Amino acid sequence: MKALSEAQKDSYRRDGFLFPLPALSAAELADCRAGLARFEAWLGSPVADADVAWRSQPYAHSPCFTDLARHPRILDVIEDLIGPDILIWTSTFFIKEPRSPTFAAWHQDGAYFGLEPEDQLVTVWVALSDASHEAGCIEAASRQGNPRMMSHLPKGLANSINRAGQEIVEPIDESRVVPMALRAGEFSLHNTLTPHRSQANNADYRRIGIGLNYIAPQVRNAGGVRMTAMLVRGADRCGHYDLIDPPRAERDAAALAAHERVSAAYRENYRVQVRRHSERFERPTAAA
Fold first, then answer.
1. Beta-strand pair 186-191/121-127
2. Which residues form the domain of 159?
């Protein structure tokens, strides 16, 4: 049985996003929250206050987050959109503390991903706490069936939840903007070319989300960096990525080495993609 109806798939392809979709039971949600608590105890700080490398790739070092990345309800939806062979390429915690000014300016994930073809990448955003409009949920702008890459600048914006503090520097039609509020345990989907943002957390509770970026094995990196990924369903017959094994224990030596390997490749690619995007959209200055 398909996870998505034809109407839902048409909506996703037209708008570039879809929500809300059910994922986690109360017990599964509690397991993820407990896994995050153990991780932050190990770090000795909230994720957002630790080194930026620890914000990403928890599927590489923690079996509970590997299980989340392989959750059948999530993968059934992804399979409906990109096929039965699925890799997880990256994942990131997006946590806003109560009354936090942390935000994300308008951006597209694909600006600094460098993955092609872009319609074979899907971002899942799982709410591990309620992600209400007040708490700064994702807001997405419909592509209206006409996706394209927009021009970004890495502005280093203060309080940005994104690494480069990037922002789209073209107008966004606010009439097309939809707040994607989620209850804890639900998830949303958006495409790599979907413009989206999130505002500050004005609620009195912690907004906890995790983004999971899935790709089909035929997706290639356009920047020349050899990337890593984990096979979560089906088979990889293309060999474009160095595959890592699921962790056997929480942050043991092998898991930490795998996390560093994934993180190092991601950092290198991110630097390359920021430069490539800048070169692509660089505007020539007028001759003197």
1. antiparallel
2. 6-281
115 and 193 in contact (C-beta within 8 Å)? Answer: no
The reply to whether 220 falls in a domain is yes
- The dihedrals phi and psi of 224, each to the nearest 5 degrees, come to 90, 0
Domain assignment present for 288: no
The predicted structure's pLDDT at residue 191: 94
User: pLDDT category, 283, cuts 50, 70, 90?
Assistant: low
Q: Contact at 8 Å (CB) between 207 and 255?
A: no
Q: Is position 232 within any domain?
A: yes
CA atoms of 111 and 38, how far apart (whole Å): 33
Chain centroid offset of residue 211 CA: 4
207-215 and 17-22 as β-strands: parallel, antiparallel, unpaired?
unpaired
Helices 6-15 and 72-82 cross at an angle (nearest 10°) of 70
Interval 31-47 mean pLDDT: 98
Indicate the length of the chain as a whole number.
Answer: 288
What domain count does the chain have?
Answer: 1
Query: Which tokens in the block code for residue 19?
Result: 């929500």
Residue 140, classed as helix, strand or coil, is strand
CATH number for the domain that contains residue 189: 2.60.120.620
What is the chain's percent helix, strand, coil content, to nearest 5?
35, 25, 40
Radius of gyration of the chain (CA): 18
Dist CA 231 CA 119 (whole Å): 19
pTM of whole model > 0.90?
A: yes
Asked whether residue 1 is assigned to any structural domain, the reply reads no
Q: Are 3 and 73 in contact (CB under 8 A)?
A: yes
C-beta of residue 142 within 8 angstroms of C-beta of residue 176: yes
Residue labelled with tokens 């460098």: 114
